[in-house]
Specification:
The complex is a heterodimer.
Chain A: H1 3-33, H2 49-56, H3 58-92, H4 97-109, H5 112-125, H6 134-157, H7 162-169, H8 174-202, H9 206-211, H10 219-229, H11 234-256, H12 259-264
Helix pairs in contact in A: 1-11, 2-11, 3-4, 3-6, 3-8, 3-10, 4-6, 6-8, 7-8, 8-11
Chain B: H1 2-13, H2 23-47, H3 65-71, H4 74-106, H5 113-125, H6 128-139, H7 144-151, H8 163-187, H9 191-199, H10 204-232, H11 236-242, H12 249-259, H13 263-296
Helix pairs in contact in B: 3-13, 4-8, 4-10, 5-8, 6-8, 6-11, 8-10, 8-11, 9-10, 10-13, 12-13
Classes of the chains: A mainly alpha, B mainly alpha.
Chain lengths: ~270, ~300
């Protein structure tokens, strides 16, 4: 077998698997813009009617805004929690470093549905229940903190501390050094961590499933409930919103720190 | 003289007394995770040993009843068996499909790599609900694949609401995780090692089996463990793509908690599933370590 044939074969297999990976997502977007009740060949033309129906549907719109608000709050809280934790573990933790790292990434190692169950039982055991947004915010934050922690740690590990020493020796206070030197230099990592936290919350399913309450439903849960009983492309319009968000987040991270940074900790 | 310079340098580096203690940095996340991660997990373990009370979610009496009820029921064992079988099958399939993609990413020239990663990460970040819905459009009774089959005169084929649909969904959703694990292992194998084997006369397949594959085993092991655990706990995919025909443990657990409000039995079921998962993973890790040691020799 010649090298060219082998190369082409390998290329074909890779393209086919990428096709498998992308097909259902592309199909959802196509279905959202398709005029007909369901997708068929040839397509029946382009239309925005399903988006119109999505924005006219009170449950969808309400859950969309609820998800956005929740994801935004979760981003702020987990960026602060994960960021400060990364600073401590990278720079100050002594013998406890490995234990702390294990604790901080543990929510990623355990199935989210298990964490959701544990939180549901916990909230009821202490008499809080699952009314309002608080429980969801806590649940989403638990699984978002590890992402921020991991990404900010990666950036901090490669940080050149002599820059901080220079600022300090020139008379800057610890506070000023942090805001004027450290933070601007690690900004890309912090924003990437925040974006990961945002999308983790916005697309979160297992934890939300257990912690939602009447009147406080997130978009993925609303979509899931909808799909159990109907099939029409309003769901495709709702899904397209989620697809667009994910693509934007990936693109932003690519521009900010590079995807290699967040996937296996830097180019080699 | 040198000593004086050294002292001066140390004096500059020493933090001034005004700096707050560093432990304050750990306080927010530490307290948060202790309260909302460690304590809830502890509480769940405790709950699984409590009795169900009349008119209340649980009583403060310790019992093994919940576990016995699950472990003595053949129905649960069938569902557990199905859950593990589906997770194992999806793991093997993601490994087979993930390897070529991971290899392509790891060996891609600099400028093409971000594109390949982007096409992998974008699906990863799209939620499982949306992705299952995409498969419903493709696999459904009036879906695109069945429409095509009808035009070709093959007739309708049941592609969804059965094990086939669930496996397709599981493989699709967890494939990116496997690819990332494999790619980070393949990344560490210098291309020169393969070139050396080739230039010494090894055929491509021999190079793969004797050089690339053994060196990539750490990624194979970590990726398959990750996918296995994720697939064991899958809930959305078995419901949406399995209809009511593919019952797995996470579905039963959520029913027990949210519909039957039986918290003690629900948490015991969760403990049984993930206890068994831990046993499987321990055996796997033991075997994997033995294999890795054997290869290093």
């Amino acid at each position: 077998m010649s090298t060219t044939v082998r190369r082409l074969g390998f290329l074909g297999v890779t393209v086919a698997i990428y096709g498998f990976l992308l097909a259902p997502i592309v199909i959802v977007v196509v279905a959202a813009f398709n005029a007909g009740e369901y997708l068929r060949f040839p397509p029946e033309g382009i239309s925005l009617r399903w988006f119109a129906k999505f924005f006219a549907s009170e449950p969808f719109v309400r859950s969309f805004w609820f998800s956005l608000k929740l994801a935004w709050l979760c981003t702020v809280v987990s960026t602060v929690l994960g960021g400060t934790a990364a600073f401590y573990v990278v720079r100050h933790a002594g013998r406890l470093r490995d234990v702390l790292r294990l604790l901080l990434v543990a929510p990623l190692q355990l199935p989210a549905i298990l964490t959701g169950i544990a939180l549901l039982l916990f909230f009821y055991s202490v008499g809080l229940g699952t009314r309002g947004m608080g429980g969801l915010l806590i649940g989403h934050t638990v699984v978002s903190v590890p992402y921020v922690f991991l990404i900010v740690s990666t950036v901090l590990l490669r940080f050149d501390r002599s820059l901080e020493e220079a600022a300090r020796s020139l008379g800057a206070s610890a506070w000023a050094t942090f805001w004027r030197v450290t933070l601007p230099l690690i900004r890309g990592g912090v924003i990437s961590g925040a974006l990961f936290a945002f999308i983790t919350s916005f697309d979160q399913f297992p934890i939300s499933l257990l912690l939602v309450s009447v009147g406080n439903t997130t978009l993925p849960i609303q979509l899931f409930d909808y799909l159990r009983f109907s099939f029409d492309p309003t769901a495709a319009a709702a899904s397209t919103v989620s697809v667009v968000m994910s693509v934007m987040v990936v693109w932003l991270i690519h521009r900010l720190v590079g995807l290699e940074q967040v996937t296996w900790g830097g180019p080699r | 003289m040198a000593r004086a310079a050294e002292m001066a340098r140390l004096r500059v580096r020493r933090p001034p007394r005004s700096a707050p203690p560093a432990v304050l940095l750990l306080l927010p996340s530490g307290l948060f995770l202790a309260a909302f991660f460690l304590v809830p997990y502890g509480n769940m373990v405790r709950m699984s040993f409590l009795a169900k009370a009349e008119g209340a979610a649980f009583a403060n009496a310790v019992t093994l009843e919940n576990y016995l009820r699950i472990l003595q029921d053949a129905f649960y064992w069938r569902v557990i068996g199905r859950t593990f079988w589906l997770a194992g099958l999806s793991t093997v399939l993601t490994l087979l499909l993930g390897y070529p993609v991971a290899y392509a990413i790891a060996r891609a020239p600099g400028p093409r790599r971000p594109l390949l990663l982007m096409l992998l990460l974008a699906p990863l970040l799209v939620g499982a609900v949306v992705r299952s819905y995409g498969w419903m459009i493709l696999l459904g009774r009036v879906g695109l694949i069945n429409q095509t089959l009808r035009i070709l005169g093959v007739g309708e084929v049941e592609l969804m609401y059965n094990t086939f649909g669930v496996v397709i969904g599981l493989v699709h959703v967890y494939l990116p995780f496997m690819v990332l694990a494999l790619a980070s292992a393949l990344e560490q194998i210098p291309a020169e090692v393969e070139l050396a084997a080739r230039s010494l006369g090894a055929a491509p397949w021999r190079t793969f089996w004797r050089v690339t594959w053994p060196l990539s085993l750490p990624g194979v092991f970590s990726g398959s463990m990750l996918v296995f655990v994720l697939a064991l706990s899958a809930y959305v995919i078995p419901i949406l793509l399995g209809g009511n025909n593919v019952l797995v443990m996470p579905i039963l657990i959520v029913q027990m908690l949210l519909d039957a409000f039986n918290w003690p039995v629900g948490s015991a079921m969760a403990m049984v599933l993930f206890g068994l998962a831990c046993v499987v993973l321990l055996v796997y890790v033991k075997t994997a370590n033995r294999v890795l040691r054997w290869i290093e020799r």
